[in-house]
Design a protein that fits this description.
The protein is globular. Helices cover about 45% and strands about 15% of the residues. It contains 13 helices and 10 strands. Helix 1 (about 15-30) crosses helix 13 (about 280-295) and helix 11 (about 235-240) crosses helix 12. A hairpin with a 2-residue loop joins strand 5 (about 150-155) and strand 6 (about 160). It has a 4-stranded mixed beta sheet with strand order 4-3-2-7, sandwiched between helices. It has 2 domains: about 5-60, no CATH class; about 75-295, Arc Repressor Mutant, subunit A (Orthogonal Bundle), CATH 1.10.10.10. The chain is of the alpha/beta class and about 300 residues long. The structure holds a DNA duplex (13 and 13 nucleotides).
Length: about 300
DNA sequence: TATTATCGCGGAT
DNA sequence: ATCCGCGATAATA
């Protein structure tokens, strides 16, 4: 707890704050095969603290968590059979859009519709705590349009961060929209999204996909990847009928505006390498590790 | 035209 | 085993 106060920029003392430092240390020093004592020391905590933290945060012991973010485990996420996307469909869940465990119903808003009729469209935004740091949530009257993260310091040695930058990043996606700070409008979304106990099929989460036709098709495909599984850029490309477009898929995945809800973190390279994440690879690891804990129980 | 959060192939460590 | 460099490839600004 005392060490966390030094990182007062965001959610001081939060679980993710420490998790982030553990992950950052491991990614930079994995070659040295650091012991749990060394890792704990670098994160400013005792091994016992670390143990309790991971049990509380994701339900896994530190050892299990570390194993969950290795390349070997990432390959397992991909699944032995043909494609995770196909097996998801075989399970026989009824409608499109409720395959995600968050029970999302989605509608698409094409750029044309967005530019032509978008004059009156206004977006509400707010900042809310989450298991992965402070989240920026953007909504329309029709549903969730954006979810991003406020960077909280270092990622891969690069200094980034702040609410202003998080908001600017989101506004860059739809520069012509009207933005209104309205935490009361966005708070219910935060409560729903980050509490697995609140995930329910009866009241699906409404999301609005704003992008090109190609991007929307990719994002819709991502919604079919179950919690605790992963797929590859090439698999997504096959799924939308363009087997050779894996690179273009990577670009579209990277532009996903609704982090976590549209699970772009569950797309990894064919080798099992995590390859990239708009909000930092450290966060991608953290989310995948957290999800491993959710499915383990 | 020049960018990619890709992929698979050789050839060199 | 692992890692680079390369070309093919599809969608954007």
């Amino acid at each position: 707890m005392p060490a966390a106060a030094e990182f007062a920029s965001v959610a001081p003392g939060s679980d993710y704050d420490t998790v982030r430092r553990v992950l950052a240390y491991i990614t930079e020093n994995w070659r040295a095969q650091p012991t749990i004592e060394t890792i704990a020391g670098a994160a400013g905590a005792t091994p016992t603290d670390i143990h309790h933290l991971f049990r509380r945060w994701c339900g896994l012991t530190p050892k299990a968590f570390l194993q969950a973010i290795t390349l070997y485990h990432a390959k397992n996420l991909l699944g032995a059979s043909a494609s995770v996307l196909d097996t998801a469909l075989e399970v026989g869940l009824s409608g499109p859009g409720r395959l995600h465990d968050l029970f999302v119903t989605h509608e698409a808003m094409s750029p044309g519709e967005w530019k032509a009729g978008g004059g009156g469209l206004s977006l509400s935004y707010g900042f809310h705590p989450s298991p992965f740091g402070e989240a920026l949530i953007v909504t329309t009257p029709r549903g969730l349009a954006g979810l991003g993260w406020v960077s909280d310091g270092l990622d891969g040695g690069k200094v980034v961060g702040g609410r202003a930058e998080a908001l600017a990043d989101m506004m860059r996606r739809w520069p012509h929209a009207q933005y209104r700070f309205d935490p009361q409008a966005t708070a219910p979304y935060a409560a729903r999204i980050f509490d697995p106990k609140a995930w329910s099929a009866e009241t699906p989460l409404r999301v609005v996909l704003i992008g090109t036709d190609f991007e929307v098709r990719v994002w819709q495909t991502l919604l079919k990847i179950p919690v605790g599984r992963a797929t590859t850029y090439g698999d997504v490309a096959c799924h939308i009928g363009k087997p050779s477009a894996s690179r273009a898929v990577g670009m579209a995945v990277g532009k996903n505006p609704i982090s976590f809800v549209v699970p772009c973190h569950r797309v990894i390279g064919k080798s099992g390498a995590l390859t990239g994440y708009h909000w930092g690879l450290t966060r991608k690891r953290a989310i995948l590790g957290w999800e491993a804990g959710q499915t383990a129980g």
